[in-house]
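Researcher: Next entry: Amino acid ABC transporter permease (Streptomyces doebereineriae).
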Amino acid sequence: MTATDAQLQPRKKGLTRRQKRSLSRGVQYVVFVGVVVAFAVSADWGRLKNQFAQADIADQMFPDVITLALKNTVLYTLSGFVVGLVLGMVIALMRLSSVGPYRWFAGVYIEIFRGLPALLIFIFIGVAVPLAFPGTEIIGGTYGKVALALGLVAAAYMAETIRAGIQAVPKGQMEAARSLGFSPARAMVSIIIPQAFRIILPPLTNELVLLFKDSSLVLFLGVTLEERELSKYGRDLASTTANSTPILVAGLCYLLVTIPLGFVVRRMEAKAQEAVK
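Model: Predicted structure:
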């Protein structure tokens, strides 16, 4: 075969890059479907239904699971969020302060309360505070203790979020406010902080979702029947009925709140990105 004949023969073509991507994606779909089918076939759905989906037990939970457990969970979450937001704002401003001791205190607070598990904070509020200050009662009883415990934890995260939001506001905004006669404090409150909150609203809403789940730790404070939140309510009924259906119903009630909140967070993040563009 001459060199000319070799040149005239068609070259073998491999898969293009697009074809390779399509093939890889197809293989991933097949593997995923295979895993789902294998799980569906191998699971004992009858036993799962008997343990987690007893309609008569679920019916017994209503309306208390909504009017009592879910209501308390929402109240605990909102009170903790308010305390955390106020305290987080103070810590963030201290972190940005030109006064050294303020910055050091804020830094130590953030590192400690971000590093400790929320469970230890609840135990500290429920056990250590009464021992350290005999006869002292936290305002609001259990609700006040939960608000303080959740707020202390949330404030450490919110402080860093707020600080980042304040620093994200262009420095020219402060300079413009000062040129108009605003004092530094008034410019911060009237100009900088409102703009910062528009930036940090999505992560703050995400923090609300996390607090909603952390409210389940209230059981370590010792609550009455009327103060139970979703997790405690579900566990108590599960022990009484020797069935896990109450736990599943409690979990679904969590999703009733967290899924819409997650959707709101994604919408706000999308709008924020559109505003930047």
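Model: Note for the record: The chain has a mean pLDDT of 87.
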